[in-house]
Design a protein that fits this description.
- It is a single chain.
- The protein has 188 residues and is an alpha+beta fold.
- Helix content is 19%, strand content 38%.
- The chain has two domains: 2-97, Hepatocyte Growth Factor, CATH 3.50.4; 101-187, Hepatocyte Growth Factor (3-Layer(bba) Sandwich), CATH 3.50.4.10.
- It is built from three helices and 14 strands.
Length: 188
């Protein structure tokens, strides 16, 4: 509850005081793996996050508490091909600047990259399950609606268009024309 309150407060501070109208999201236990392009020793976590929002090429910030100050590491913009990694016991808190949204790809499927398959749920439940998944950072929710001979199918994957081999991302989908892939992408 305290972490949620801090995140909400940070979101308000970032939206009100920053040049870029962005939010800062804590995706623990996930962290992005883009390069650190600058480091600063600052008096507070808030100053670190605001610095990132005021820097055009900053996508995320790592905050490491060091006695009375924080080590602030600014990370380069997230590229579509840069994965978000599961980090066990991360050494720092990382706030990703911006939000994530689903991009819809009709008549598309990913062949052979299903991490979790669920049956009998709605498309909204499929996307919500992708967002709330904690075993891996879900990047795609592949949806196949129900028909008279089968129930609906939801395939969740840590992979996306730019992370799979050329033949794995199919458009049009050879398995079933009704497939829709919802690819989770960072909004800059």
């Amino acid at each position: 509850m305290v972490l949620f309150a801090i995140a909400c407060w940070l979101s308000l501070v970032i939206n009100c005081g920053a040049i870029r109208q962005q939010t800062a999201q804590l995706f623990s236990p996930f962290q992005i793996s883009t390069p650190v392009f600058s480091e600063f020793l600052l008096p507070s976590m808030i100053k670190c996050i605001v610095l990132c929002t005021q820097t055009d090429n900053c996508a995320a910030v790592d905050v490491i508490q060091e006695s009375s100050s924080v080590l602030c590491k600014l990370r380069d913009k997230i590229q579509a091909s840069t994965p978000v990694l599961l980090v066990t016991d991360p050494p720092s808190q990382q706030f990703i600047i911006g939000t994530w949204e689903f991009i819809k790809h009709i008549n598309t499927c990913i062949i052979g990259f299903n991490d979790i398959i669920l049956y009998g749920i709605s498309v909204d439940e499929c996307k919500a399950t992708c967002v709330s998944e904690r075993a891996f950072f879900c990047r795609t929710a592949e949806w196949l609606p129900a028909n008279p001979t089968r129930s609906s199918r939801c395939s969740l994957s840590k992979d996306w268009k730019d992370s799979v081999s050329d033949g794995a991302w199919e458009n049009p989908c050879s398995v079933a024309q009704e497939h829709i892939v919802y690819q989770r992408m960072p909004v800059k």
